[in-house]
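Backbone geometry:

***
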Amino acid sequence: MRVPLSWLGEYVDLATDITPEQVQADLVKVGFEEEDIHGGDISGPIVVGEVLEFTPEEQNNGKTIRWCQVRVAPDGQVADDGGDAIHGIVCGAGNFFVGDKVVVTLPGAVLPGPFPIAARKTYGHVSDGMMASAKELGLGEGHDGIIRLAEMGLDPEVGTDALELLGLSESAVEINVTPDRGYAFSIRGVAREYAHSTGAAFRDPATEVISSHGVTEVKKFGKEFPVSVDDQAPIRGRVGCNVFATRIVRGIDATAPTPAWMVSRLKLAGIRSISLPVDISNYVMIELGQPNHAYDLDKLAGDIVVRRATKGEKIVTLDEAERTLDVEDLLITSGGKAIGLAGVMGGANTEISDGTTNVLVEAANFDPVSIARSARRHKLHSEASKRFERGVDPEVAAVAAGRVAQLLVELAGGEIVDEGSYFNHFSAPAAIELPAGFVTNLIGLEYTDAQIESSLTEIGCVVVKAGTGFTVTPPTWRPDLTDKWTLAEEVARIVGYHLIPAVLPVAPPGRGYTVAQDVRRRVSNTLAATGHTEVLSYPFFDEETNNLFGSATAPFVPQVRLANALDATQGWMRTSLLPGLIGTAARNRSRGLTDLALFETGLVFLPEEGKNYGQDIVAGGVRPAPEVEAKLYAGIPPQPRYISGLFVGDAVSKQVGQKAIAYDWQDALAAVQQIALGAGVQISVRQGSHKAFHPGRTAELLLGDAVIGYAGELLPSVAEDAHLPRTVAAFELNLDAVTDAAGVPHVAVDVKTMPAATQDLSLVVAETIPAADVLAAVAEGAGELLETATLVDVYQGTGIPEGQRSLTFALRFRADDRTLTAAEATASKEVGVALAASRFGATIRE
């Protein structure tokens, strides 16, 4: 909301030396966020000049210019730029005459742009300034020649400061108005809030209109203009229109110029000048917060009826677009034909034109939900719909219609006739019970009854003492005050946010992280400390992606579908974190970040086949009963927490004496081992397969005998589809399973002091047998004396039969109470070899 300071000053007392910055600071105190300051982009000297004479001169380019002599200061006085009273000025416009008074920007002036003015040689003359158009001064969009002040109804003295005359020296503050405070989309509302902040005297413009017209004159008429509301399809049981006020003004001059002060104020408020009747309508909307519309009375086909649209009905709105209407759209009709999309935009068939003389002024109050739906449905967001969506004071409609009529008389030469209507079916705001002590308990600051009563009275509420508390009736312009909580917020706002103490909550003693929280933090910190970057991605994907990553082998997986997805193509909850990491990597590489080691922790959604979820959701503001709560939890699909990582680009960059080393599956496995170290668990690895991973470079990750994830390289086709290099390493594992295992108490093992005996063992097995299985058999057979066993080499080639491979293990043996002999270590090893032979047909490599 943009608020011109001079306009604000009409309805609330401002200090003579007030600055825009101070006004913004005062409004911040009552909850409005500052946005910007407008105006001040024009500086003088800019004065009123009189055209004394001009000589048309045709140029070689076919253009005709006028060499003008213009008086810019009274006879015998020095001009504001220090020059002579008469300036020679070159002008290309042809819409002025000798004797016209115009706006002259003298050398030294600065126009919006910025566009500095200086004496310059052009078309064979030195032009000592410029005669300005409305566009050049920021007063309009068109460029139909220079401003002739007589056309604006002005006849000032030569040399008069044009900045003051046209209101160009003014400034405006812009504030952010939250959706619940629609009343502040008006000078009336902001002036009231400024009064709350500073204690300055507030003068309600609505009261001033009533005072000038009288309450009876505003709402009652000698001759009623027929208006009816026929809403057969209310939304949420609420009728679309509850107030409809009209006034009739006859004999206006629709071509009369809009006064400069009004043009200036509208410009500062962010609205361009169009024509006098339209400008008056916009002016009143900004002033009172009540959207209104003026119809050409002679173009109306009959009585006005407010109704819902019929299926397939059409309307041509003021923007000249033909719109097909929905049965929920609320219309204003005359003679059965739509003349306006209620609360959004008027129709072109009753638009005011230069030939209009008789005007029907309409101001109504419409249901916010109905207007919001129509504006979104037709993608037609107007200044009117913005206000109706947030709630407009129903009592101000008749006042606004009267104010428009008043200005049409004053500025367009019309006459208000005793014709019109006032339809009124709105319900007065309901009283709210405010218990004693509630405000204090909610806000955390002691408020006296006097503070509560005065604060609520100040914002317009009717406050009545009721027992130990209050009964509060909100004003009609505050539809956001609906319960005791919103009333408490108002008390805190008016008394002052700055009085509320900032107190940090004290952590309960004896509590810390749970085991799961501690493990998750250790794991994330470990990965971050070893060069990985944590990211966060959206949990929504398409069905095909979830099927690819959600299962190692199954072609389809059960999925949770969103009931109201933001993107219909991404309407399923994720079954894996890897698609999000792939998208993040692709996005970063497109921006030049090519070497990435990413990881993410988060929930995945794994519903059970054939089970419906979310069917027992209940509404209400209280905690459900235990049995209902149990049903609610049963209606939630399993959501385990996963951790995934993705590696693309170079792990080691190219440098002097060092070739670049690309990320591969070994980096994924190394990250898994870092997770195991951080969590304090043992994760074993064996060869596996997953339909999203490379068939020969995929490992299963195990805790005990349970598979908890996969690591390796993604399928090249998957990587290329995401615009990534063919080699992309990744891992994913169930972090909940890791935290569960980490929660099991660990028993410290005694440090062994006896010497170790080491031996190597090479076994030949079929290449299809996982090395981890062979290693496990050797370790199991070797028994307690075997301390560690590590796979150190895999060989296929000369000396090894086709279809088989040699696995070399480094074995370390140690006893607790003695130094092992080579014979003891060999005997233990041979038992392991025998078990591997019996299970997998392993033979010792010769």
Summary: The CA atoms of residues 527 and 671 lie 7 Å apart. The domain at 515-537+577-604+639-742 is CATH 3.30.930.10 (BirA Bifunctional Protein; domain 2).
